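U., I forgot to send this yesterday:
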Amino acid sequence: MTLQWTAVAFFLYAEIAVNLILCIPFVSAQRWRLVFNWRIWKCLSPYWNKCFFTMIMVLVVLFLDAAREVHKYSSPEPMHEAKVNSNLFDHLHMKLFRAQRNLYISGFSLFLWLVMRRVVTLLNQMAVSMENNAGLQAQMESAANAAKRHQEDNRLLKKALLDEEKAISEKKQQLKLEIESLSSQLKMAEEAVHKSHAEVEAMSRQAKGIAKEYDRLLNEHHQLQNLQSAADKKIQ
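Result:
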């Protein structure tokens, strides 16, 4: 195996190991996100896309070269020549086996390279989704707690309003009774005032009559005095 295909084989083994590690079930996506957020990956992130596409181009070239080699050694002409010479037949099959091996190595390397990129992307997206879900769940719980508090406040407010309405109703009833009592007292006072006015008028009329009788008696008294004085003068 030449140096380039040895490097591709080791790259394939590394890809298999990394993909297996990424697929470990008990490691959550959030932990992988913490690993992906290490400072070393942030330093390498500007070169990641360039490295990714460069490896794709290299693996595509190697895959096409391996496919060309497979087509070359599996064509009818070399096989016809190999049938004549047995050593050439073995050599040709060895070349074909190596070309097919290189084709599989480069093809699987290219496939796993794309799969690894996709797995990393999905892990990041899953971690972000889980964080968003956790944030949404916390918001929903806080909203539910706030709704419960508002419901409790509304219940207490309704209870206070009912108590206040009951107190106002009782106060209105009490005021109504007081107004009725005051109205009856006012009516009685008015009747007493009218009765007092009637008594005053009667007393006034009686006083006027007494005054007239007093004046009449006074006049008679004066007349009697005058008559008595006149009679005394005649006797003298």
